[in-house]
Design a protein that fits this description.
mainly alpha; 213 residues; 0% strand; 9 helices
């Protein structure tokens, strides 16, 4: 029990209180005392921490950075865009899955209509599509899903492009040996290819990235 003379608690209480809630946010910003990032997310642990801070029994040292989005896209991504994309990479991945999910669903529905039930017996659920688009590598998926994904990719140029571009996103924040200028060139090339892909939702997502500041 803490007495009145006890010093402030400065270690991350978010790890101890409600540590399993908002799990993805916790992994995105592991040093943040606040797990919620959007207005509708209920963060019980943050409420406790704020009460303790008010009582001077805790001190908040770090919270997740805020993603700044400009009103209009930049002509090309700059170093500030690169920094935002890397720092908020979990947000980027989630937004990519959300933006491309409907396009993938429509493409697979068209494949099923052409090929028939024998080749595409079941339409993947939205949850499965989200896993495909969020996966860093097909190797992380269950074996059955990998087979279904491989068949879909073989049959659709659009799906191949969407999936390959998702993997290329990882190269932007996964190549620690490259200079920031090299990574910026990668991001600029990624946006150029996305907007020239002919896939409207992919081009729109790229324009959204160019708004990151």
């Amino acid at each position: 029990m803490l007495c009145s003379s006890s010093p402030p608690i400065i270690f991350p209480l978010g790890i101890l209180i409600g540590g399993e809630e908002l799990h993805n946010n916790h992994h995105a910003y592991g040093s943040s005392a606040k797990f919620s990032s959007r207005w509708f997310e209920f963060d019980l642990g943050w409420g406790y921490i704020r009460i303790l801070e008010t009582l001077r029994l805790a001190k908040v040292r770090r919270v997740a950075p805020t993603l700044h989005v400009a009103p209009t896209p930049k002509p090309v991504p700059d170093l500030a865009t690169l920094h935002a994309v890397i720092e908020h990479r979990y947000t980027v991945v989630a937004a990519y899955a959300r933006s491309l999910r409907a396009t993938c669903a429509a493409e697979i529905a068209a494949l099923r209509s052409k090929a028939g039930r024998a080749e595409f017996p079941a339409m993947p659920s939205l949850a499965r599509l989200k896993r495909w688009l969020s996966s860093e590598s097909g190797d992380t998926l269950p074996v059955a899903e990998r087979a279904t994904l491989a068949k879909a990719l073989e049959s659709s140029k659009a799906l191949q492009t969407i999936y390959a571009m998702r993997q290329d996103l990882d190269g932007i924040w996964g190549r620690s040996t490259e200079t920031r200028e090299q990574l910026l060139a990668r991001l600029q090339d990624w946006c150029r290819r996305a907007e020239a892909s002919g896939i409207a939702s992919l081009a729109q997502f790229s324009r959204q990235l160019r708004r990151y500041a």
